[in-house]
Amino acid sequence: MTAADGQVGDGAQGAIAHEDNKRAAHRAVVDRLLNGNGRAPADLRARAFRNADVPAPLDALIDTVATRPTQVTDTDFAAAKAAGFSEDQLFELVISAAVGQSTRLYEAGLTALAEATGSEKAR
């Protein structure tokens, strides 16, 4: 890899720098999601992110998004809207749940990779 490629470093160093950039970007997305301005309260976005302690009737929608996203139905959204949540709030909460689940899977993958390779660098 060369500077002309827009990549810093070469070989393993370049790969490490690239991975560090991905992790930094991921942390920035999560931070903005959980701490940035939004229509849904930050504590509720954090609960949706963790898929824990989400109040009814949001709990069914958030759990389905996190664990069985292909099974989300209009009924799940209708129940949450009937409870007084706006579409903007539901959008933020659904994104929080999806990013939370992907974060857990990403971390589990890094942990498995570190264990398989005997390397702490994977984490």
Account of the 3D structure:
The protein contains five helices and no strands. Helix 2 packs across helix 5 and helix 3 (58-67) runs parallel beside helix 5. The protein has helices spanning 11-35, 42-50, 58-67, 74-82, 87-117. With 123 residues, the protein is mainly alpha-helical.
Gap from first CA to last CA: 24 Å
**Biggest sheet features:** none
How are helices and strands ordered from N to C?
HHHHH
How much of the residues is beta strand, in percent? under 5%
Number of helices: 5
Report Rg: 18 Å
Keywords:
mainly alpha; 123 residues; elongated; single chain; disordered N terminus
Q: Helices and strands in order, then pairings?
A:
Elements: H1 11-35, H2 42-50, H3 58-67, H4 74-82, H5 87-117
Helix pairs in contact: 2-5, 3-5
Brief digest:
The chain is mainly α and 123 residues long. The chain has five helices and no strands. α2 crosses α5 (87-117).
